[in-house]
UniProtKB/TrEMBL annotation, chain A:
Keyword Nucleotide-binding part of the UniProt annotation: yes
Location of this chain's protein in the cell: Cell inner membrane
Residue ranges constituting the ABC transporter domain according to the UniProt record: 5-252
The protein's name in its UniProt record: Oligopeptide transport ATP-binding protein OppD
Family: Belongs to the ABC transporter superfamily.
TrEMBL record, chain B:
Similarity comment: family membership: Belongs to the ABC transporter superfamily.
Organism classification: Bacteria, Pseudomonadati, Pseudomonadota, Alphaproteobacteria, Rhodobacterales
A GO term, aspect molecular function: ATP binding
Species, as recorded: Rubellimicrobium mesophilum DSM 19309
GO biological process, one term: transmembrane transport
SMART domains found in the cross-reference section: AAA
Lineage: superkingdom: Bacteria
PROSITE patterns cross-referenced by the UniProt entry: ABC_TRANSPORTER_1 (PS00211), ABC_TRANSPORTER_2 (PS50893)
InterPro entries the record matches: AAA+_ATPase, ABC_transp_ATP-bind, ABC_transporter-like_ATP-bd, ABC_transporter-like_CS, P-loop_NTPase
Gene3D superfamilies tied to this protein: P-loop containing nucleotide triphosphate hydrolases
Keyword GTP-binding: no
Protein name: Oligopeptide transport ATP-binding protein OppF
Residue stretches making up the ABC transporter domain: 5-253
Amino acid sequence: MTALLSVSDVAIRFAGPARPAVDGVSLDLRAGEMFGLVGESGSGKSTLANAVLGLLPASATVTGSIRLEGRELLGLPEEELRAIRGDAAAMIFQDASASLDPTWPVGDQIAETIRAHRPVSRREAERRALELMAEVGIPDPARRFRDAPHRFSGGMRQRIVIAAALANDPRLLIADEPTTALDVTIQAQVLQLIDRLRREHGTTVLLITHDLGVVAQACDRVGVMRGGRLLEVVATADLFAKPSHPYTRALLAANPATAPRGSRLPVIPPEWSVEALDG
Amino acid sequence: MADLLRVEGLRKTFTLGGPPWARRRVVALDGVSLALGLGRTLGLVGESGSGKSTLGRCILGLTTPDEGSVTFDGTEVASLRGRALLDFRRRVQPVFQDPWGSLDPRWTVGRSVREALDCFRIGTSADRDRRVLDLFRRVGLDPDLAGRRPTRLSGGQRQRVAIAAALASGPELIVADEPVSALDMSVQAQILNLFMDLRRDLGVASVFVTHDLGVVKHVSDEVAVMFRGRLVETGEVEEVMDRPRHDYTRALLAANPALHVLPAPRSP
């Protein structure tokens, strides 16, 4: 079976630091799966995700190969990448309001995403935008269509962003910490929404998160990153039942939610700690 | 036994917005009462806007409630002035989520900790330098780091410095507002261990404000759940976690995947 997204021996360096941000990562995403990429800060998970859609600053040097449905993305000119973003592949971020224009009605923003990639009439795009707002669970979408983003709660704004991301039925959705800024009860709802949509549309999801609870709840497989390297890729159930890498084991053991109450939390060995990376 | 801290019928309303037509009133605290015994740890949980941080600030005497009272060791906090207020500040110390806000970027971190000792005139002047180094060791920091500025420390190290500064005055109560929320899991575990050491070794009571039930379950004796300015449930941690009575507590528990989905690690 061919991979929907195939990352092969990717290394990413920024102009300043000696250590590469991403260091020889290879990874295949299967069509329709939700793949979790976990790691602590500085692990390179977001840098890798941004590299897929060419969103890194000019100071970054990317080597290796990133293929979406067989097509090489690295080295594509900006205009071709722009044609892919929001169409074949879409990305959502932690801060939904940064993805939305604060002065523009949300419905128009979703419709614009459609018209940027499809030759449809304004009326048709608006009709589709309204459908999408209903699909992501915005109550009374017809009435909310002309509201500006600030009229929505954080969770509802993230739903709007998801609607815009899915407007052109992308094959790949990259979600970088999409629930981190939300309250826990809202987090669960947004995760369930992403999961339902990918099942209904057959979208492949790359979910970037620092939260093992989120991975456990939503992902089929998971890759653990640390210091720019991909340490292991396993089925989610196996990650928790029999974590093989010592870093993964340490990370799981350090979670206060699962440790015996009041016990001393096992500290991640110094050589694996975040602080060892740049010390 | 007398309670160290008593909060009774606290109400606080804020007015938000600029021009008169845009203003709206937000009830941050709506009749909150609780009590905390000597050396106990209370986990204060709730979502954003539930009023938990406002309650923390009222306990610290940083926000004045509209109604109700905060009593520390038998004295009402709002009535304190002069030396009595300084003494209260010595005995009740804050730790915030972002240690940047507690540390002067131009000062070495050792000087910031020393400032706390100077402020409360603890020990002789010569004695204080030694105490700063002791405090660094106490929070698990290499005393050599005392000569660095905050920018040259990691996030976890900065939070340890902020805790050292809070401990400088020998407090009996620490009010910690999301002290581990900004930290990576590997660093969070170290800071939680430190809080548990302080309770065991120094008998410090604490109010631990957090949105993370996993953290509360781990470090607290008691838990208070806030929802829209009210305390909807209080009790011993095990009781509340095992048999939540309020719908909102149940929703909060159900929504926290780490508490259910993650299996407990097997003993090595």
